[in-house]
Design goal:
The protein folds into two domains: 17-173, Nitrogenase molybdenum iron protein domain (Rossmann fold); 178-290, Nitrogenase molybdenum iron protein domain (Rossmann fold, 3-Layer(aba) Sandwich), CATH 3.40.50.1980. 44% of the residues lie in helices and 12% in strands. The chain is built from ten helices and eight strands. The protein has helices at residues 2-15, 27-37, 60-67, 83-90, 135-149, 154-179, 195-201, 219-232, 246-254, 275-290, and strands at residues 20-24, 41-45, 71-74, 96-99, 186-189, 204-208, 236-239, 258-261. Helix 3 crosses helix 4 (83-90) and helix 5 runs antiparallel to helix 6 (154-179). It is globular. It binds zinc ion.
Length: 291
């Protein structure tokens, strides 16, 4: 009994004030928080890599995750339409919510706020994490947020963040090299998830299988895409694994294009355990298909 009490005291003392409890929306943000925080953070994400981040069904277990968290890291720009509900439901008045989009150079901002852009993307395109150059801002903001919660570890967070960004920079140069021959290629995507990615690599996204973000494919729009793909010799249609690919498959059958199932988060498929592995898989698969 005495030993048990001593053991419990050691365990409690070991936890006290040690780890910052972080919850993230996307698994990619969880990976970055772990890379930066190391042993000084405990990180959980709400969305799995194989789920549509726009369409998460709110569950009490998500509120429980936030109940005892110090930080909630999110992409922002309304990607996580479901987030306000779980933040309110957590009743955690000391929770700090960090919107990582604040300093991002945003694309496709609508001239006026309306549903004309579709069901989602009303504040512009939130899929900025697929341009790895934006990850510098994300990492800097996570370093700052963790440092606010655990000022004694600020130097460690900074060092880890810088080390990660150095590695990422090397990879960015390599990815750009791999994709160089395909600059100027035209592709089609299911959803407007690839805007930032395409802008980074000089690809043109001619259209989406969804007539508007969040709006299901329609026969007339699909027919229009079949003639567009034929006319422009488009060879690739990117569809995330969580979307129904039947309209894209229909276009592929009628043309020379092929459907590429590419996740937009790590853990989505392809064995990518972290953000860098996700981008590695994406670049290798896309380059292979455009060859
Ligand atoms: Zn979207």
């Amino acid at each position: 009994m005495k030993h048990l009490i001593i053991l419990l005291m050691v365990v409690v003392a070991g936890n006290a004030g040690a780890a910052v409890k972080v919850v993230t929306s996307l698994p990619d943000l969880a990976d970055l928080a772990r890379q930066i925080g190391g042993e000084k953070v405990v990180v959980e994400s709400i969305v799995r890599g194989d789920q549509n981040p726009h369409a998460i069904e709110v569950k009490p277990s998500y509120m429980m995750k936030l109940k005892s968290a110090d930080l909630f890291l999110m992409i922002g720009m309304d990607l996580e339409l479901w987030a306000p509900q779980i933040i309110d439901g957590s009743r955690n008045s000391s929770l700090e919510v960090v919107d990582l989009s604040r300093r991002i150079a945003k694309l496709e901002i609508p001239a006026s706020l309306s549903a004309s852009q579709g069901d989602v993307h009303r504040y512009g395109n939130p899929h900025y994490w697929l341009d790895p150059r934006n990850i510098r801002i994300v990492v800097e903001d996570i370093v700052a947020a963790l440092s606010r919660k655990s000022p004694a570890d600020e130097q460690l967070f900074r060092t880890n963040g810088e080390r990660y960004l150095e590695k990422l920079q090397t990879q960015i140069r390599r990815w750009e090299e791999v994709m160089k021959p395909f600059a100027g290629s035209t592709i089609i995507t299911f959803h407007k998830s690839w805007t930032y990615f395409a802008a980074w690599l000089g690809l043109t996204v001619a259209d989406q299988v969804e007539p508007k973000p969040g709006i299901a494919p329609s026969p007339s729009h699909t027919a229009k895409l079949i003639s567009l793909v034929r006319q422009s010799g488009i060879r690739v249609i990117i569809v995330e694994p969580f979307y129904d690919a039947s309209a894209a498959e229909q276009i592929a059958r009628a043309t020379q294009a092929k459907v590429l199932r590419l996740p937009t988060s790590c853990g989505g498929t392809g064995g990518a355990t972290g953000y860098m592995e996700l981008m590695d898989y994406t670049i290798a698969t896309l380059a292979g298909a455009l060859k």
